[in-house]
Amino acid sequence: MTGAPFAPWALRGESLVAVYRRRPPGTLPDPIRAAPGPCAIGATRYTDSPVGPYLQFTVAVPARLGARLGWCVVLVVVDRQDARTGASLNWGYPAELGALGWHADEDERELTWVDRGIVVRGRARGPKVPMVLPRRELQHRGDGPVLVPGRMWGLWRLAAVTVDVPPDDPLDALAGRHAGAHVGGVHRVVREARTPIGLLAPLRAPAASADPLLAGGGSRSTPVESRRRHARVGDSRAYSSAG
Fold it and tell me: Phi/psi class of residue 37: alpha, beta or left (left: φ > 0; alpha: ψ in -120 to 50)?
């Protein structure tokens, strides 16, 4: 895998997280199935990672793989190609490359996905509370379904998070004001993906990918191309404009 280290990854930075009820359109990759519960949005500025600093926008939905419950990450947008490569090949995240911007002003944080005109904005309030959040994600990698264990800890503060989405965008389910938090001093560890029976999958992710951009450097999607691919409701990757 050229340009991105193998898992596990240790990352540091800060993040806005929020939960919302309305599930975005699209289907999950077989054999992962939808589960009841709220969906989640993440807007993150990583200041340290195995590939250097980068920004990330994430959408995850509750899911199950057999009897195992977790989150299925249905959209990941990053602003570094090596971060995209690592996310896709290590863990099967449907990552794409996009133009992202970050703004900080006292207690307010804002991430903008410039290509799509989507803005995530949050203002923290109240005391900081140290908290550890274990996390299990259910993904479909090039070699089949996998479980992705990890954890994130940091200083959590309540935040009102607002997401602005253009009205004609397929991700308009994200729009609105949501309950959330600002997490400062983020320490996140994403472990090696595991097979559904609990044994370690091959620690080295598949050498080949169906997405030619992951093998050859890639380029950002134009807004029109991105919207067209997001509109493919019924495709297992319909949430994402990249495989």
Answer: left
Q: What is the pLDDT of residues 93-108, one digit of tens each?
A: 999 999 999 999 999 9
The total number of structural domains in the chain stands at 1
pLDDT digit string (tens) for 131-185?
A: 999 999 999 998 899 999 999 999 999 999 999 999 989 999 999 999 999 999 9
Domain harbouring 126, CATH code: 2.40.400.10
Q: How far apart are CA 192 and CA 204, in angstroms?
A: 9
In a domain, 108, yes or no: yes
Residue 68: name the closest of 135, 132, 19, 136 by CA. 136
Tell me the pTM. 0.83
Whether 146 is covered by a domain: the verdict is yes
Domain that holds residue 128: 9-220
Cα angle 77-79-85, degrees, rounded to a multiple of 5: 75
Q: What is the residue-wise DSSP string for 73-85?
A: EEEEEES-HHHHH
